[in-house]
Amino acid sequence: MRMFRNDYSEGAAPQVLAALVATNDEQCVGYTEGDPHCERARELIRAACGREDVAVEFAIGGTSTNLVCVNGLLRDWEGVICTPDAHINVHETGAVAATGRSVLPTRDEDGFLSVAEAERVWRFQTGTGRHMTRPAMIYISNTTELGGVWSLSRFDAICDWAASHGLKVFVDGARMASALTSPAAEGLTLEHLAARADAFYLGGTKNGMLFGEAVVISDPGLRDAFPYLIKERGGLMAKGRLLGVQFEALFTPDADGDLPYWKLARNANERAFRLRDELVSLGFEAYGEAPSNQQFFAFEPEVAQRFAEAAGCEVFQELPDGRLLTRFVCSWATTNDDVSELVAFARSL
């Protein structure tokens, strides 16, 4: 059976692989500095964002991107407000803390950073003046760690709050393609995101690329700092053109005038929605609402174990009632036949 563990188990989407093969014999300058593919990818991404005044930089993966951006947006005595399940707080082995920056988690439980909780953390951290770390930015991810998708109204609300307190906005976009092609985005577009966030990134690793993230930066300080920080933190890729080639392939319109970047994400979402609906129809309980390529279910332990063994899905945690929170992830490569095979297995349980 095809695995449903994550959205980066496969190699590269066909158009990405073809572009890498076609350019394999080219000789380019390194480090994403002036090679034609990185420059063209930057132009295409700026056009998609509707902004010619942003910087576009490239990084290898999500942790490296988060680390560089958080450090570039903060000073030594400043911290970042995020949810308790935020990637920078849980799944990055203390990478941000190891650089001396402070992560300031809220008590939000649904993956979304709320205005009320951000305000509570702000007041607590600023209540004694210079004796505590001062919040200077917020970190949100789209999609969230629980597969949630930010709507236009929710995104604007947290951005308005951040602006009213002088905080910068950084969006982890490891699964941005899934988020912005979800019906739950409700009007949140790449152009709007680019207009409001100080920095965000477009994930490639989890949307059809071998590796790579494209960082869109409007904040002047981070624009200046990024080239140096990415080198200092060990994230600068010598064969940088490989990043440009892949993003160039995904942001070049196809024969239908659509971007492959969005097409790949729509496939992942549609397969995930079908998977969810089929499992629910069989009597399994979906956990929360995840309108993206990640779907969560609450299973009895023995059922969770059998799904994990058969489909590679990941068991996240034990819930208060003893059931196990289990995640299924669809990718650009997931087919309807793959979903049918999983559903057939589910019927046998």
Features:
16% strand; Aspartate Aminotransferase, domain 1; 2 domains; alpha/beta; 7-stranded mixed beta sheet; Aspartate Aminotransferase, domain 2; 42% helix; 11 strands; 349 residues; globular
> How many distinct beta strands?
11
Overall structural class, as computed from helix and strand content, comes to alpha/beta
Uncertain spans = none
Overall mean pLDDT: 97
Q: What portion of residues belong to β-strands?
A: 15-25%
- How many structural domains does the protein architecture include? 2
Element-by-element helix/strand order: HHEHEHHEHEHEHHEEHHHEEHEEH
Instruction: Return Rg in Å.
Output: 20 Å
CATH architecture of the largest domain: 3-Layer(aba) Sandwich
CATH fold name of the largest domain = Aspartate Aminotransferase, domain 2
Total number of helices: 14
Question: In words, what does this structure look like?
Answer:
The chain has 349 residues and is α/β, with parallel strands linked by helices. It has two domains: 14-250, Type I PLP-dependent aspartate aminotransferase-like (Major domain) (Aspartate Aminotransferase, domain 2, 3-Layer(aba) Sandwich); 264-347, Aspartate Aminotransferase, domain 1 (Alpha-Beta Complex). Helix content is 42%, strand content 16%. It is built from 14 helices and eleven strands. The chain has helices at 14-22, 36-49, 62-73, 87-90, 95-98, 115-126, 152-164, 176-180, 190-196, 220-232, 241-250, 260-281, 301-311, 336-347, and strands spanning 55-59, 78-82, 102-105, 134-141, 168-172, 199-203, 213-217, 285-286, 294-299, 314-318, 324-329. It has a seven-stranded mixed beta sheet, sandwiched between helices. Strands 8-9-11-10 form a four-stranded antiparallel beta sheet. α2 (36-49) crosses α11, α3 (62-73) crosses α10 and α12 packs parallel to α14. It is globular. 48% of the residues are buried. The model has no long low-confidence stretch (mean pLDDT 97).
